[in-house]
Design a protein that fits this description.
Layout lengths: L1 H8 L3 H15 L11 H14 L9 H24 L3 H4 L3 H4 L3 H25 L5 H18 L25 H18 L3 H4 L3 H24 L13 E6 L4 H5 L5 H12 L12 E3 L13 H10 L5 E10 L8 E10 L4 E6 L13 H4 L23 E2 L5 E6 L18 E6 L8 H17 L3 E5 L4 E4 L5 E5 L5 E6 H4 L9 H27 L1
Parallel strand pairs: 1-2, 2-3, 7-8, 8-9
Antiparallel strand pairs: 1-12, 3-4, 4-5, 6-7, 9-10, 10-11
Helix pairs in contact: 1-3, 2-3, 2-4, 3-9, 4-7, 7-8, 8-9, 8-18, 9-11, 9-16, 9-18
Amino acid sequence: MERLADRIILAWGFKRMVFAILAGAIGVLALPPFGFFAAMFVSFTLLVWLIDGSAAAPESGIIGRLWPSFAVGWLFGFGYFVAGLWWLGHALLIDSDAFAWALPLAIFGLPAVLAVFYGIATALARTIWSDGVGRIAGLAASFGLVEWLRSILFTGFPWNAIGYGMAPVPLMMQSAHVIGIMGITALSVFIFAAPALLGTRQGAKLGLSLAALLFAAHVGYGAYILHSPQPAAAPDPKSPVIRLVQPTIDQTTKMDTDGDRAAIFEKHLKLSVEPPKDGGRRPDIIVWPETSIPFILTDNQDALTRIADTLDDNQVLIAGAVRVEDTGPGNPPRYYNSIYVIDGRGQIVSAADKVHLVPFGEYVPFESILDEFGIQNVVEMPGGFSPAATRQLLTLPSGIKFYPLVCYEIIFPDEMTGDLGAANAILNVTNDAWFGATPGPYQHFQQARLRAVETGLPLIRDGNSGISAFVNARGEVVAGLGLNETGFVDATIESFSLPRDPGYPRQAYFWLIEILLFAIALVSRVGLVFKHN
């Protein structure tokens, strides 16, 4: 181990760059669809040794002294994000004539920008670097801080935060209910980086013991929660049955303006009225995915009539649709990515608009400037979508309330606020057909499951091409449909609703973890200075 560590520490030039990029790329094996969390031990062990060897000339200024460690972190992040986000390019190939030119930007440009966060993390860690367990704590605290920043700066993009590598299965998800995914991220880096201490022998016994204790607590808490007895409840024959419709409409078909939109609409209706499997009850609530209605519903009375004819009087349809809002004479209309609740009479009784839009997907930042360069939305919509000012609960005629999240809104832990406590479940509608059979939909689904665990609320998730599922508050899939599987799945609310407390002050606990890790790093750093003096 020491010989390997020396080889990595002393690596220089091109070889050092390759080691850093590979270290980041290897870590992606911990993410869906692989879930091999042990890969992160390799990634962060290599990263620590690379930072160990990123010394600068003593006469260098502050930027010069931090540049080698920043470069290592940036290369590590570049490898991690290219390997973990390459599938974003698939969305641009849906309309390749218009967007193929942007493929390098999606596959390499975005990772290059996101990698700056990891470069900042390693540079920050280097300022408090020591020769023992303190440097592991400093690295963990720095990554925790920058991952939090990545979730909020420039509209935020916390996709594939390091903590998801420590939560591949429900057994390893439960800690999120206490400390959130950001807390898991900080502690995960400490655990993943601990084996690096074997290569230098400095603080190995203490560091590995602490890492083993943290890992045991993480898994042990998960085992305790999953095996805790649940209070027995008498089956409720009146518990509403929910049906998730997964039509698997190809994205090129959905975007074809000359295509048969009526056929798409009818496919959704047909799956909605299919008889229940195994003699079950017919659904009370039917859910369609994001933008499932292929036209402006409020401009199409025939479609509302068709829905009314399809539903029974006491059935409800929840469907993703584009909502248009008239802004007055001479002004362009506003478009919203919305969710409608439609009753058995074809009346829209509730609606919620998407709050957190996708940059360059649903709107173009600095549109007046970038439009001159021909940069436009991937989704064709005049002027793009408009965001809702606030998030509204979806209230059904029965009184059931859902917390609505459209597509990637569910990857943001900080979006889970407001009236969340009044909701019976989280409702997430999405359309991952943009990304085909790539790791993207699997990564998206894992992050959605973590929101259920964090909040202690069950999750109802419906995707055009999957993954559609009913997920309980422990992140366990009760029933669902796989990626690109066409059909429907039914479940009663009772079957996936587990009693669970609303959680803990996760944000406060995250900052407490950060303070403790930084304190360990600073104490170690001060001790090293006194030792050398």
